[in-house]
Design brief:
Endonuclease I-creI; 6 helices
């Protein structure tokens, strides 16, 4: 049994406005000097209201999440002090990998703005099936991930030009 539907609806609205979806491929260097691709799918919410972020985190108690407060740079602190600007701290809650898949499984049908990105991310996260084994994942898996990344980029560029609205 998952979170209550009213909570999911509220979280979906919050996610559509303050959330982020991300698929990335980074190259990581091993100790032996070889580079390998590291794939990752993540979703999260950023907000200045810590209680609402903690509430969202509690909705999925069996799912690993990462909560961090955005650090302020020295220049930013000086600027805020000089102009007497009272900015609130920004908190970010992130779910990565299987945790992101679990959260998106509930949110995806309820999203309006970020639904297509979320669906592509779910498809991407589905390519992580079990352990890769000694020889790694088969090439078809990497091809699936590349297709998902291309679709995701196309969706993002569509949003940037307001074609999706």
């Amino acid at each position: 049994m998952g979170p209550a539907i009213a909570d999911l609806l509220y979280l979906a609205g919050l996610f559509d406005g303050e959330g982020h979806v991300n698929i990335r491929k980074a190259f990581v260097k091993k100790t032996n000097g070889k580079k390998y691709a590291h794939w990752q799918g993540a979703v999260g919410i950023s907000n200045t209201n810590l209680p609402i972020i903690l509430w969202a985190q509690r909705l999925f108690p069996n799912v690993t999440s990462h909560l961090r407060k955005k650090p302020r740079t020295k220049n930013e602190l000086e600027r805020l002090e000089r102009f007497a600007i009272n900015h609130k701290d920004l908190y970010t809650l992130t779910w990565v990998g299987p945790s992101a898949r679990e959260v998106l499984r509930y949110l995806c049908p309820l999203l309006r703005i970020k639904r297509s990105e979320a669906e592509i991310t779910l498809k991407f996260l589905a390519t992580f099936r079990g352990r890769p084994g000694v020889k790694g994942y088969p090439p078809e898996i990497f091809e699936e991930r590349e297709v998902c990344m291309s679709e995701f980029r196309a969706e993002r560029s569509k949003e940037a030009t307001n074609e999706s609205v």
